[in-house]
Structure to design on (314 residues):
């Protein structure tokens, strides 16, 4: 096994170069979002962790829910608004929320006037897929762990 | 599915009543450790998240490594010392570290003069077990997800 770092200062990890796997017509919804990958550098495989910075107006993701993977977030800075199903709730530092596989769809939007910073955790259950109730998009995890995005009818993006 | 909370203020979650599953001769090593369970209240099953407070002198766990589950920690407050294999490193708020399944054993000790507070994440891979290099203890996950602790020769505690 390649020796990973002993520890990392999260804010010093370079942001992930590609902002998202979303297609060009949906990618603008994620403008202003920056992710630093905090689990992979240590060789973690079973779940991922990101330090995600949302500029004012930015969203954490498209409204979505995973079929097999759980997700969890913790607010470090700012006041992002959490949307879960039809509900919304203003969060502040020290708040957390969890999103079980197959539960209500969810996403965060930063409606504040300063950046919001969150930790987000999601496991990598084999055969996972993502449902986007508000957009013509579907995502299916491939056997190699990568994601394939299509329209809901299966046609390519 | 039972409706979980939309969000929780992590510090307001009551501490876990039972301090650890360790036997009486090893439990004192964890004195001064307090855990708040932050994933289960949302119905998460695939991984667990704790907000763990370490009083001065307290340890996060016995030196250990999981066979199948990854672990990850993020420092919110204080200056805990991370032990990984034979190395040690003083951490401070904003630092994180990850511990892949089968990697070097690890634990944290708070040698500071104020409490340390960390977030800790670990997945729940089926058939997991824990190796404790410095203590006569073994732990094996049972088919129902609970843990069975024995001495290393398999004898009961």
């Amino acid at each position: 096994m390649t020796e990973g770092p002993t520890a990392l200062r999260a804010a010093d990890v370079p942001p992930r170069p590609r902002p998202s796997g979303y297609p060009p017509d949906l990618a603008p919804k994620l403008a202003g979002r920056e992710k630093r990958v905090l689990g992979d550098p240590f060789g973690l495989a079973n779940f991922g962790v990101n330090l995600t910075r949302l500029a004012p107006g930015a969203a954490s993701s498209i409204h979505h829910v995973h079929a097999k993977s759980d997700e969890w977030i913790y607010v470090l800075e700012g006041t992002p608004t959490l949307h879960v199903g039809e509900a919304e709730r203003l969060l502040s530092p020290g708040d957390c929320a969890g999103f079980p596989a197959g539960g209500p769809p969810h996403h965060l939007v930063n409606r504040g006037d300063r950046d919001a910073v969150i930790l987000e955790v999601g496991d990598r259950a084999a055969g996972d897929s993502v449902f986007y109730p508000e957009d013509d998009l579907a995502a299916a995890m491939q056997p190699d762990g990568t994601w394939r995005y299509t329209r809901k009818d299966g046609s390519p993006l």
